[in-house]
Design goal:
Rossmann fold, alpha/beta, eight-stranded mixed sheet, 45% helix
Amino acid sequence: MDKFRLAVFNTQPPHLYCGGVERRIIETTKRLSSQFDITVYSGTKAGFRQPTIVDGVNVVPCHSTDRLFPLDNWSFNRTLSKIGDTIVADIYEAHAVSGYGLLKELKRKGIKKPFIHTVHGVLADEYEQAKQIGYNSFRSRVANYFMHRLASSEAETAKEASLIVTISKYSLEKIKQFYDVDEAKVRIVPNGVDPEKFKPLSDKTMAKRQFGLGNEPCVLFVGSLIPRKGLPYLIEAAKNVVKQKPETKFLIVGDGPLKNQLIKAIDAYNLGVNFKFLGILKEELSDAYNAADVFALPSVQEGQGIVMLEAQAAAVPPVAFDVGGVNEAIRDGETGLLVKRSDTDGLADALLRLLSDGALREKMGVNGRKFVVENYTWDLCAERMLRVYNEALGLQR
């Protein structure tokens, strides 16, 4: 019997980007490529111009701008709408708002195939959180305006989709709150981690040297340098951490529009020697976790947080604000520490507590890896998505 055909849509080429959405696409599709004929359609970003095959999965470029969100998203969706009837599949899956125009076109053409809408962070929720943060730069205001518009498209797609997949109980509640959809068609499939790629080393010395560190205590952040990731809170907390442990280093992995603003704040606090920006890491990312003693995620909004799973898989205890789906990905007091949102003193205290107690770090590290391996792997994610795909096929029979 021929394999069923799965078409997946995402603005960013998943093999060229390191975001949570892209990691999920790459990790799940390669695990299911033996059971489905899978094609991923993505925008022409990062120089992606020619079709390619990644781990048995076809990846096809569809014209978009190579500019930042949301212009790239809008142009990608416009392209999909024009070529929608040429994309032949048994199941369509759109991530976030990377296919809202396509769903309309399929319905207009009378193409009745299951359409799965995978919602990661709920955009309406992200928009509300962004308003509370209070960044008032022109760029931030423009981004928030388009986020509000796209949240409306996300809501419409969610209502029209055959099934909705989301990553946490928190995201499910926000979908219900903001998008008024029937909970009966929502499936929770958490993101995962590869425990063979992200695993602890018995000796961190070499990993620390790789990033120019000696025996200094190290705090790691991994994520986009955007408002909701809360880096200014980490910088504020760092002032208190450095007062007690002046040798502490903060490694920042990622890039984004706030980088220059963050560097200015660090320099204003005379913390330049304590912070090191590493940019986006791919192959070296697992090494960065092993160079760290503690992981910090000061986000003010998260649907789940793959980076916390990666940190725990590497036996590095995380410290994070208790927001969104974060408390589903950390067991407070067992695998890491949760702090009240925006509490920079509490964040500093939690970091210092772990940096000062090697035995506690080791205990939480062991607990964290066990927790992730048992509950949050890409193998488990792929198995759960397989059940969703089979259910979606059954809906059309």
